[in-house]
């Protein structure tokens, strides 16, 4: 029996129902994007693929070296795409439902946590990273410039005034995390006036309404960072209480009262909860660590050397699936060994990246290469940088958790067959040693009216492609297979090919 969660009316969100004024704004921002965008940067796409493909190339890399090469690849491309003092970055790719400017803000907010995590790990030695082209990039200076420009109302790159249900509320959490990770080299260097300016922009989240799902974690992240940096406590404990209402047991959250059980548990809920616990270890360690332990003790079985039994939305975040495993070994909240977490993280990166999951300096909008069928309408060109969330935890904690030094150990499916239930989400998990395949089967449907045709991945129509290109707004079919009635998912991932 699934837990009954009290529901709240879903608000009308302007970008989901654009009027004439919104379309005019979309067209205007699309023209600005066309004027400011730069050519796709593909100089080191093949290089980074070979770093993660053990069957190609003459050089063998250990995991830490692979991660370092990946950050260099990301930093170099970011330097290429960034505009207006690193406040926005126009990456190539399919647009979201937001404006092109919001998409470009994601090109910063979802990249600089990785740069800040790298700085946190390396800043005592150097604040300069060399791109794969060996061009030096001063990460600390870049971050200081971005935060001061983005929070300055008089600057061209100002991140703007936030409003209810604004996508920038989501982005503010990543920006705040980057500020916290880099505080020794950024915040502590700012003058009092500069600190006030930066904090004032972030504190806008305190008065903004959010969608009633994992979004409650975004203002909480900002508020915990502001409290850590300034001492000002505006933490919305009611939002945190609502997040805990979504917890259904067995380590799983439902993404809203009527939402999915999916991989947002990995790269959404537990990623954010891990950082809340790092920013303030006294916030709610008992619940956060217990739920993380419970989740990871079963979720670890999902990982194979070649693929995941993926289900739910935002498949373009697939590289971040191992984030809770890395969080668990850092806080020592699970019986999971460091070696097993390391193998899950490394093989996940290698499987996807060696098959083309990085292109033009960014994770692609698909499983491997770009695939319009798999890009949700809320996702833009840089949204897929959430794929780096496991990398962010690895960079931040890898040295102290033993991730870099420990030898790998086998994944569960490499040890033998297994079969078990996850009662809270009404699912069965089956692993087959001989084929190294893991299958997840749900015992109930999200939808009653369905047919073989409605369960397929629907392609984007020709007319929608044209409209999307002209207006700069996503016009793609909804292809969340859970919502189409698919109940069986395999690590062979053939549903997405």
TrEMBL record:
Annotated ranges, domain DUF2264: 66-409
Signal peptide start-end: none
Gene coding for it: YPO0843
Protein known as: DUF2264 domain-containing protein
């Amino acid at each position: 029996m699934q837990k009954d969660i009290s529901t709240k009316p879903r608000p009308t969100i302007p970008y989901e129902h654009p009027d004439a004024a919104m379309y005019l704004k979309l067209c205007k921002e699309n023209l600005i994007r066309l004027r400011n965008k730069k050519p796709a940067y593909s100089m080191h796409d093949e290089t980074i693929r070979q770093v993660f493909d053990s069957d190609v190339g003459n050089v063998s890399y250990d995991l830490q070296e692979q991660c370092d090469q990946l950050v260099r690849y990301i930093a170099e491309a970011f330097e290429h795409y960034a505009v207006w003092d690193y406040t926005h970055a126009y990456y190539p790719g399919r647009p979201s439902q937001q404006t092109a400017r919001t998409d470009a803000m994601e090109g910063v907010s979802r990249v600089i946590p990785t740069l800040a995590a790298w700085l946190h790990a390396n800043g005592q030695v150097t604040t300069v990273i060399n791109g794969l082209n060996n061009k030096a990039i001063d990460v600390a200076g870049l971050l200081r410039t971005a935060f001061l420009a983005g929070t300055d109302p008089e600057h061209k790159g100002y991140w703007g005034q936030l409003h209810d249900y604004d996508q920038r509320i989501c982005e503010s959490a990543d920006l705040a995390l980057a500020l916290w990770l880099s505080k020794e080299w950024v915040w502590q260097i700012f003058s009092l006036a500069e600190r006030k300016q930066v904090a004032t922009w972030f504190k806008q989240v305190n008065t903004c309404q959010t969608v009633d799902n994992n979004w409650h974690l975004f203002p909480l992240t900002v508020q915990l960072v502001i409290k850590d940096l300034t001492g000002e406590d505006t933490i919305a404990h009611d939002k945190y209480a609502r997040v805990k209402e979504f917890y259904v047991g067995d380590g799983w959250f439902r993404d809203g009262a009527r939402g999915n059980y999916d991989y947002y548990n990995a790269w959404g809920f537990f990623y954010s909860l891990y950082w809340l616990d790092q920013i303030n270890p006294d916030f709610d360690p008992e619940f956060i660590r217990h739920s993380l332990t419970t989740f990871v003790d079963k979720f670890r079985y999902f990982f194979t050397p070649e693929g995941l039994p993926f289900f739910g939305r935002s498949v373009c975040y697939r590289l971040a699936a191992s984030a809770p495993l890395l969080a668990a070994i850092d806080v020592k909240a699970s019986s999971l060994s460091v070696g097993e977490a390391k193998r899950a993280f490394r093989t996940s990166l290698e499987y996807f990246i060696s098959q083309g999951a990085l292109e033009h300096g960014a994770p692609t909008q698909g499983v491997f290469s770009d695939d319009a069928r798999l890009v949700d309408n809320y996702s833009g060109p840089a949204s897929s940088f959430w794929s780096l969330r496991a990398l962010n935890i690895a960079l931040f904690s890898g040295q102290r958790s033993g991730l870099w030094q420990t030898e790998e150990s086998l994944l569960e499916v490499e040890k033998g067959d297994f079969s078990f239930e996850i009662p809270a989400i009404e699912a069965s998990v089956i692993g087959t040693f001989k084929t190294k395949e893991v299958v997840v089967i749900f015992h109930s449907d999200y939808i009653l009216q369905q047919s073989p045709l409605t369960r397929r991945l629907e392609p984007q129509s020709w007319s929608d492609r044209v409209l999307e290109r002209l207006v700069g707004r996503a016009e793609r079919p909804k292809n969340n297979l859970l919502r189409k009635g698919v109940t069986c998912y395999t690590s062979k991932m053939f549903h997405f090919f």
